[in-house]
Amino acid sequence: MTTHTRHTTSAKQQWAQGLTVFAAVLLMLAGVLDIFRGIMGIAEDDVFVTTRNYVFQFDLTGWGWIHLILGAIAVVVSMGLFQGAMWARVAGITIAGLIVIANFLSLPYYPVWSVVMIAFSGFVIWALCVGGRDESRTFGAPGNG
Asked: How many domains does the chain fold into?
């Protein structure tokens, strides 16, 4: 194996690890923000917009519980991502997708916050999908050079 191949492998592994940490931090932030949003919804805070004739209209308390639960799961999964657990990578993509769906469906209640949460979750999904490849199996493993 050449020095160039080792350097490229190391750079790719560092990039993948960096993306995983990025995803973990963003998922932690999204989870904490979703917990806050859930608490505000359960308390029926006045920051939410009231809409009429919305197809996915739930009671504000119902949306609050949905966001609180998703946020709590996101925080737990992000801790697993910091540990480098494979289950957390799969769960992170799943929970970020569910956060996107929940925020899309509750868009009329708090539009700006929903768009920010959708963007955060989109970056989490991107980072976990792009940074999830184990480059050491392809490059740098004995016999693969």
From this structure: 1
Give the whole-angstrom CA distance, residue 24 versus residue 10. Answer: 21
What pLDDT, in 10s, does the model give residues 93-135? 999 999 999 989 888 878 888 899 999 899 999 999 987 555 4
Is residue 78 included in any domain, yes or no? Answer: yes
Euclidean distance between the first and the last CA atom of the chain, given in angstroms as a whole number: 5
The reply to whether 8 falls in a domain is no
104 contacts 41 by C-beta, under 8 angstroms: no
129 C-beta neighbours (distance < 10 Å), count = 14
Is residue 3 domain-resident? no
| Tokens 């768009």 found at | 115
- Domain containing 25 equals 19-46+57-135
User: Whole-model pTM?
Assistant: 0.76
